[in-house]
């Protein structure tokens, strides 16, 4: 089952960069690439840093799951930032899904591994499922 998912997700796309949604902020729109333009090491570092930032926010949000109702505004702000980071990560990974954007096949395969992990289930969308949802139900 996992191998079918990987095969489906790693199939190269012939589509151009994703079209931004109505709520997309200017900094979240993937850049259009000219023919032959490669993804730079700086862009890869920025994606790595964004993934780490999202993870740090998620850990912090989860640690604050037992806050009182009147204290939730701080957590809600972090939840919004975490969800926005996840959206930007997904958009970036999808927009980079073209072998010609990379210097080597090895680099492209590495992106495919990242893409599979980013797009598979299990990512918490805090706006839909706040951390206190589970403690209030208990």
What does this 3D model show about the protein?
Residues 115-135 form the Rhodanese domain. This is Rhodanese domain-containing protein. Residues 1-38 are annotated as: Disordered. With 138 residues, the chain is mainly alpha-helical. The protein has a domain at 38-126. Helix content is 56%, strand content 0%. The chain has five helices and no strands. It has helices at residues 2-10, 41-63, 72-95, 105-119, 132-137. The longest helix has 24 residues, at 72-95. The radius of gyration is 17 Å and the shape is elongated.
Set down the secondary structure blueprint.
Blueprint: H1 2-10, H2 41-63, H3 72-95, H4 105-119, H5 132-137
Helix pairs in contact: 1-4, 2-3, 3-4
Shape: elongated
Helix content: 55-70%
- Using DSSP, what is the number of strands? 0
Radius of gyration from the CA trace? Answer: 17 Å
Could you give a short account of the major beta sheet?
A: none
Succession of helices and strands: HHHHH
Explain briefly what this protein structure is:
This protein is 56% helix and 0% strand.
Key attributes of the depicted protein:
138 residues; mainly alpha; 56% helix; elongated; Rhodanese-like_dom; Rhodanese domain-containing protein
């Amino acid at each position: 089952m996992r191998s079918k998912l990987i095969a489906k997700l790693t199939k190269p796309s012939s589509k151009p960069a994703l079209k931004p949604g109505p709520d997309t902020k200017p900094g979240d729109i993937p850049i259009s690439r000219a023919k032959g333009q490669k993804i730079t090491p700086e862009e890869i570092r920025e994606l790595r840093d964004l993934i780490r930032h999202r993870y740090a926010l998620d850990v912090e949000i989860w640690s604050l799951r037992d806050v009182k109702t009147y204290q939730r505004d701080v957590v809600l702000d972090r939840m919004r930032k975490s969800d926005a980071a996840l959206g930007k990560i997904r958009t970036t990974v999808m927009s980079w899904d073209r072998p010609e954007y990379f210097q080597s096949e090895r680099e492209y395969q590495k992106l495919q591994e990242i893409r599979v992990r980013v797009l598979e289930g299990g990512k918490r969308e805090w706006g839909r499922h706040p951390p206190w949802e589970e403690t209030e139900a208990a």
